[in-house]
Amino acid sequence: MMTVLETAAALRARKISSSELVRDALTRITALDQRLNAFITVTEDSARVEAKAADNELARGIDRGPLHGIPVAVKDVFWTRGVATTAGSRIFAEYVPPHNAAVVEALIEAGAIIVGKTNMHELAYGITSENPHYGAVRNPRDPARIAGGSSGGSGAAVAAGIVPVALGTDTGGSIRIPASFCGVVGLKPTYGRVSRYGMMPLGFTLDHAGPIADTVRDAAIALEVLAGYDPRDDATCRRPGENFVPPEHTPMPEVRIGLPENFYFQRVMPEVAQAVRNAAAEAELLGARVSSVRVPDVAALNTVARLILLAEASALMEPHLHKRDHFGADVLALLDQGRLVPATDYVNAQRLRRKLGDEFRAIWRDVDCLFVPATPFPAPLQGQRTVAVDGQEEDVRLAATRLVRGFNALGWPALSMPCGFDSYGLPYGLQIVGPPLSEARILRVAAALEDRLGLVTATRS
Amino acid sequence: MLKDWKYIALAWRGAIPESQLERIIPVLERLEADFRPLAAHLSQEIAPALVFFCPPEERAE
């Protein structure tokens, strides 16, 4: 698969048309999706019509930018006008929104062609995407394994080369975990960077929307389209548009990279830890300064984030909880737990979040970004409930979120990209994290590293 | 002392079936055991962080 910029150049040189790109994407869906189950809805008819319109516009000199005419996919948690938006649930199986989500509007305005709505963990409340209502999403690198979640269909669609960019959401790692397990790039932007209007919520103070993409630059192109103030989401920032896309062959920026000496390399598979350290060493060869850094209490941050999410998700779903047979067992258990959390604990969790946020901010005195693993291990098997790391048996869900969840509570931008593979070809994810609104720098670091590592990210089977 | 989660669940008068309690109570007990020591030392001036993320100068008016 070509990158978005390569495809955009080919479109403008009339070497390929948007109609052909969309036809190819639909052909791949037909060929692969019976196995992958990455899509809940395929919008074949509208995609073909819109592709033709994109071709006509380009022929008339109307150019909406690099996504013009490019097929993309959207997690089935974002409103799409006239197209069912299920949130991967039975509760919303028949819901057809009257409006588009802000990010869907942005993609359409940029000329992107939506070929379908991707499968996901039920209600975005979990990390396996083993969906009891729409079937399990399978990992394109090994269909016996999970794609991760909750944006598992988006990760799988990109990794399988169906689309170069897909939208995901991230409340406790749901963009970065599938990116790590599928071997693609996933970016959770700063809280407030991208509007969540029309995104079915899970945890109001933890939800983020962002891109999953084949390459770092493709993710950057998508972010450039998605970012911006939206009066319909009062958490969004007023910061004007930025140029997020790193130039080709961009040098490593002057940057101080921190490698945490506590927490992030503990209870992590040694091969994963080594791959992340190797990536830091490569960055150092490119001119970055790498140092050890001590981070505050991440376990406390995770506890706080879990408690907040339990309460917020259950508050949202309370009107539906009498329909107990409409929920999968794992999600129902979480929703029941959340119903029991006292208001005092929720408020104190939010107070602790502020205190911990102040402590964590001090990291940025010494470094500009952190290099940490995205997940402690590569993709687990479908149905696997526990995983052994460093001789300790852990719940897969808690272990997979351990290194990502805290950055939702802090609202910091975090990007996952492949940094190595095991002997079975399963990818390891590097997570690059920065202070609020530092996406441009994170993307430059990631792009320089991607150029250096030369990893082919998509599976082209 | 940890909360009696079973008692709290039963106060929901059957909204959460007893058969479900075995699954959820151990998780809540572990979470509370982690959370309670953290919350025990919060000083009074710390307000909840409900919407706080953008640097103040970037926040929508």
Map the helices and strands.
The complex is a heterodimer of chains A (461) and B (61).
Chain A: H1 4-12, H2 18-36, E1 39-42, H3 44-59, E2 71-75, H4 102-109, E3 113-118, E4 130-131, E5 135-136, E6 138-139, E7 142-146, H5 152-159, E8 165-170, H6 176-182, E9 185-188, E10 208-213, H7 216-226, E11 256-260, H8 270-285, E12 289-293, H9 298-317, H10 329-340, H11 343-361, E13 369-373, E14 386-389, E15 392-395, H12 396-401, H13 405-410, E16 414-421, E17 427-433, H14 439-453
Parallel strand pairs in A: 2-3, 2-8, 11-12, 11-13
Antiparallel strand pairs in A: 1-3, 4-5, 6-7, 8-10, 9-10, 9-16, 13-17, 14-15, 16-17
Chain B: H1 5-10, H2 18-39
3D structure, described in words:
The complex is a heterodimer of chains A (461) and B (61). Chain A is of the alpha+beta class. Chain A has a single domain, classed as Amidase signature (AS) enzymes. Chain A is 37% helix and 17% strand. Chain A is built from 14 helices and 17 strands. In chain A, the strands form four sheets. Chain A has an eleven-stranded mixed β-sheet with strand order 1-3-2-8-10-9-16-17-13-11-12, with helices on both faces. In chain A, strands 4-5 form a two-stranded antiparallel sheet. In chain A, helix 5 packs parallel to helix 6. The longest helix of chain A is centred in the last third of the chain and has 20 residues. The mean pLDDT of chain A is 96. Chain B is mostly helical. In chain B, 46% of the residues lie in helices and 0% in strands. Chain B contains two helices and no strands. The radius of gyration of chain B is 18 Å and the shape is elongated. The relative contact order of chain B is 0.12.
Q: What amount of the residues of chain A lies in strands?
A: 15-25%
Poorly predicted runs of chain A are none
Greatest interface: A-B, 44 and 34 residues
CATH architecture descriptor name of chain A: Alpha-Beta Complex
Average pLDDT for all residues of chain B: 84
Structure summary, number of beta strands of chain B: 0
The Rg value of chain A, from CA coordinates, equals 20 Å
CATH superfamily of chain A: Amidase signature (AS) domain
Tell me, briefly, the overall form of chain A: globular
Largest sheet of chain B: none
The CATH class of chain A turns out to be Alpha Beta
- What portion of residues of chain B belong to β-strands? under 5%
Based on DSSP secondary structure assignment, what is the total number of beta strands of chain A? 17
Q: Decide which structural class fits the backbone of chain B.
A: mainly alpha
Helix content of chain A: 25-40%
- Count, helices of chain A: 14
Taking the alpha carbons of the first and last residues of chain A, their distance comes to 11 Å
Oligomeric composition of the shown chains: heterodimer
- Dominant shape of chain B: elongated
Average pLDDT value of chain A? Answer: 96
Residue runs with pLDDT of under 50 for 5 or more positions of chain B? none
